[in-house]
Amino acid sequence: MAIQEPQGMEENDAEEAKPLMLKIAAILDEARSSYATHNRKLKELSLLRSKSPSPSHFFSAFSKTLTPLFDFHRRLASADRVVSFVSTFAAAADDEFLDHFLKFLLAAAAASNKTARYRACQIVSEIILRLPDDAEVSSDLWDEVIEWMMVRVRDKIPVVRTFAVRALSRFVNDSVNSDILDLFIEMLPLEQNADVRKMIVLSLPPSSATSQVIIDCTLDVNESVRKAAYCVLANKFPLQSLSIKFRTSILRRGLADRSVAVSKECFKLLRDEWLIKCCNGDPLELLKYLDVETYESVSESVMEALLKGGLMKLQNGASILQYISSNGNSTEGDLDHCPPRIQLMEAEAALYWRTVCKHLQSEAHAKGSDAAATTGTEAEVYAAEASDKNDLLEKILPATVGDYIELVRAHTNAGSNHRFACRQLLLLGSMFDFSDVSNRKAAGAFLRELMCKPPDQEDDNEGNIVVLGDGLSFGGDIEWAEAVASLARKVHAVPGEFEEVVLAIIEELAQPCRERTADYVQWMHSLSLTGLLLKYAKSLRFLQGKAIEPSELLQSLLLPGAKQSNLDVQRIAVRCLGLYGLLERKPSAELLKQLRVSYIKGTHSISIESCKALIDLVMWHGPQEIDKVLKLNIPCQMNNEKTTFCPVSFSDSEEDLDVETLDILYSGFENDDWASPLPSNENECVHAILGEGFAKILLLSDNYPSIPVSLHHVILSKLIYLYFSDVSEHLQRLKQCLSVFFELYPCLSANHKASITIFRVLLYSPLFWGIFHFHNAPKKCYNKKHMLQPSTFIFYLIHMKLRKSRLKVILNPINLAPNGEAPLSLRIRYINNSFDVDKKLREETSYLLVLSRTMVSVHIRLTCKTQMRCYFRLDCRVIASPSNHLFLKYNKNQVERLISLYKCLGNDLNENEIDTIVCHLELSILLIANSKNSTTFLICFADCVPYYHHYTNGLSQHPIYLNMGELYRTRRQMTIEAWLFVSFSAISSKSESSVCFHTSSTTPYTKSNFNSRSFHSKPLHLPPSPPAE
Fold first, then answer.
1. Cβ pair 334, 344 in contact under 8 A
2. 457-459 and 465-467 as β-strands: parallel, antiparallel, unpaired?
3. CA dihedral 851, 696, 481, 304 (to 10 degrees)
4. In this protein, which residues make up the domain named Nuclear condensin complex subunit 3 C-terminal (predicted)?
5. What CA–CA distance (Å, rounded) separates 320 from 404?
6. Is the backbone of residue 777 left (phi > 0), alpha (psi -120 to 50) or beta?
């Protein structure tokens, strides 16, 4: 490109500047070879500038010599060395040369040539970063530089944006240029290029406005951006400047990052900046900055990372024994809660010692396993290391089980403030040996105290008693219940002993409940302990012959609890019913009926627990076994031919429904109130539970042969709708679950991929409101861009390869396997032909746009003549219709190629080939007439819903279509005479044109109502075969 020369340069100076240009060019040529020559060449170039007749004369020669660099677009090391050399020279030059050179670069930054803009922004950024702080540049020139660099931040070329951001990074800290920071924060979430995002993150200054932005970048899809975010957090944000939420978010994401480089960068931040610099190497001090009681999992991962990194060195004499002393070193506040010899632990210390002991135990076990797997000296070394770990563990733990029990009891009696520390100590129980009878007896007595202790409660503003906790787990939270259960199973390790001890306590606690004299607190206490037993019991066989029989437990406690007036009691009882059903070899009818009633009639929280229980029982016992126990009056043949779920009205339904369990569960999707999560848990709602449950059922569909294959596409359609719908936008756990499901589903079975391919067009139906009986839906669903995303996603699923162990060889003479792309192409072409050619509704146009655009991604095999005949027959009508411009817009090249190759195909499709297509594609093809002038056949989905609206009112003016899929679904309601009448009426028609019947009504066909029905008419006349040349 031509670069403007300074206005003061005269034409006769051009000849005089050539020798100077040659010298400058020689210096630049040597500078591009190596950085080692730069210092020497800078002195030579400065000497040339000082000897030049005038500054303008030197600048003119310098700019002309540098001009070819602005046309060199390749990013080579030699070009970067020239840029570095020139930038260093300009930054060290006097103010006059720098001003002229910056103006020269700004002119290039405004050029239309992208290479010129790229080189200009690159050199400007280098100059700005190399300028000393005391450099004197006019304010007007700096304002102009900043203005042009802010313009280039929005450039369409990513590398230009990158260097523009780099150039502005030095000004972003200035409060006068706050608009630069606003621009960076605005552009960061919108930027598509990873290098630009990385440069923006590295340029952001430390402030309260940027901390959240940088922490959000730790979730970036690009590894380099995430690594840059942790680098910025380590260098610019001290530990004390971040909130506890930010600290834990940084550590949780970084230590668990899938990239090793990112996790190492996060560990470097944790070790060098937070532990050593801010906490003086004290891990207990670091844990105090993390709020271990609220963020226990993060604190535990931090301790594990430090232990694996070898940064945890125990001080001499440091152990849990320091909290158990003989001289009564307890503080005054502890004297009311514990014996004088016990000192209560802080939450950080309890977590610290638990993780240290757990690490030592795992290390000792690993070294012992290595010693057992090897021999000789190596085995002795491993054994010695394992012995050292065990010795250190014994020095840390209390000396006896009695001391351990006394320590835990003291924290238990200390109240809720020490509950976290008490739970950490309970988890240490797995490291003790309870084989001694006296130790087991002492621990058993303590466990009985824990289990008999009523749940924590308080009075609300109205004086009512409120039980604290989640209302489900024993002790109020699941972590406490797991800690108690782990210690109880360690103490009572003999098979059946755990169940016997806990049942004896339940029999005592449940006595008021069985006598119907208990209040709701006693009900919840008994049911929570029962849930703990059922969760960890291996079989109901271990419950038989104990203090209370399993059947008695069900009849006297669980079922009555599910019918209690208190909603909290109902909720926990329903959870226990689900656990009880999983232990049964054959589920009881009373249990299943109660779960169904609670699912339909219960509140949202109760319906969630009922939904979980029913999903678990269906997957464990199978849907056929569940319905068999309920003795539902459903013919087996009808179930096998089922193509959709039966709708269930929850508001008008009775308690005992003669409907399959899967139908009841699926109908939960129609309840809009169940799409909102609970206030206490933002990831729990009935829709989320159903989505996860049906995804598991589809993934393991080979285990449930009783579920018709024709229902798979219905479930899959609903799951795709949930994944892309705005309704489930707040259900992050469901979206994560479905993302894993979609990655696995097409790869596990050829049947899965066939289901996606065959019914792909139908998957759009729940998303395209206004078609397929969704007239009352919000109009935002007509958004075409919103629909192209799931369209592309489904093609991605289709193109995923099967795992090698799942591949099967399918013999197919015409290469139209149901799980290939040829049938998908035929179906899309058929749907495009099926809409009215003269007038389309707005939603129909959007629907066809998605089909036409996704058609381009379908790979068709033009070597198969049968496929080509089908394609040509369906495409010819599109070409003849001027209104079907959407299909032609995106598939014109494909259609034209088919037409050019059709002349070589020979004869038209015969009946045998049509029958083969029917067999392999699972289509219904009705061959109505085959005359010399025209061949008309109709391809219909055997299991699809009616697609079209009624546009006409009479039968006389238009030929009539018959939707064979609709007939197949309704033929069970028709007599043989009615079926033959409908089928043969078309064949025996005396009309000269071909007649095909189509209807979207579900009313059974009879001779009396057939002629009075309203039909949508639209013939599919395919052109005759061209004469063979």
1. yes
2. antiparallel
3. -70
4. 527-800
5. 10
6. beta
What stretch of H or E contains 940? strand 935-941
Give the lowest-confidence range in 245-249, 353-357, 658-662. Answer: 658-662
Distance from C-alpha of 962 to C-alpha of 996, rounded to nearest angstrom: 5
Any idea what DSSP says for residue 937?
A: E
> Residue 306 and residue 129: Cα distance in Å, rounded?
38
What is the 8-class DSSP label of residue 495?
A: T
Of 181, 198, 213, 300, the C-alpha closest to 248 is 300
- As a whole number of angstroms, the distance between CA 368 and CA 819 comes to 52
**What kind and span of H or E run contains 965?**
helix 964-970
Give the separation between CA 582 and CA 550, rounded to whole angstroms.
13
Assess contact for 723 and 735: CB atoms under 8 A: yes
The pair of three-digit structure tokens given for residue 67, joined into one six-digit string? 């001009």
pLDDT of 401 = 92
At residue 929, φ and ψ (nearest 5 deg) are: -145, 150
Q: What confidence category does residue 620 fall into, taking pLDDT thresholds of 50, 70 and 90?
A: very high
* pLDDT above 90 for 779: no
Q: What is the C-alpha end-to-end distance of the chain, expressed in Å?
A: 58
Radius of gyration from C-alpha coordinates of the chain: 38
Locate tokens 């909130």: which residue?
A: 243
State the Cα torsion 639-642-647-652 to the nearest 10°: -30
Give CA 324 to chain center in angstroms. 48
| Average pLDDT in the chain | 76
- Of the candidates 795, 852, 794, 802, which has an alpha carbon nearest to the alpha carbon of residue 828? 852
Angle at 150 (CA atoms; ends 149, 156), nearest 5 degrees: 85
- Nearest to residue 351, comparing CAs of 309, 405, 310, 307? 307
Token pair for 466: 């409120």
Q: Given CA atoms 343, 346, 347, 352 in this order, what sign does their dihedral have? A: negative
Residues 271-300: pLDDT tens digits?
A: 999 999 999 989 999 999 999 999 999 999
Q: Do 523 and 467 touch, CB atoms closer than 8 A?
A: no
SS3 (DSSP) at 602: coil
3-state secondary structure of 1022: strand
Phi, psi of 270 (to 5 degrees): -65, -45
If residue 924 lies in a helix (H) or strand (E), which one and from where to where?
strand 923-930
| CA dist., res. 796 & res. 739, Å (int) | 13
Kindly report the backbone phi and psi dihedral angles of residue 895, in degrees, each rounded to the nearest multiple of 5, phi listed first: -65, -45
Take residue 915 and report the two structure tokens written for it. 């029958």
Confidence of residue 864 (pLDDT cuts 50, 70, 90): low
Q: Which residues contact 823 (CB under 8 A, 6 or more apart)?
A: 757, 758, 816, 817, 920, 921
d(CA 111, CA 622): 70
CA distance linking residue 323 with residue 823, whole number of Å: 74
803 burial (CB, 10 Å; 0-12 / 13-18 / 19+) is: exposed
- Tell me the C-alpha distance between 840 and 447, whole Å: 73
Question: Which secondary-structure segment (H or E) carries 68?
Answer: none
Q: Are 886 and 829 in contact (CB under 8 A)?
A: no
Q: Contact 435/492 with Cβ under 8 angstroms?
A: no
- Give the Cα separation of 710 and 339 in Å (integer): 69
**Length in residues, the chain:** 1029
Which residue in this structure is represented by tokens 């192409």? Answer: 825
pLDDT in tens, 203-218: 999 998 899 999 999 9
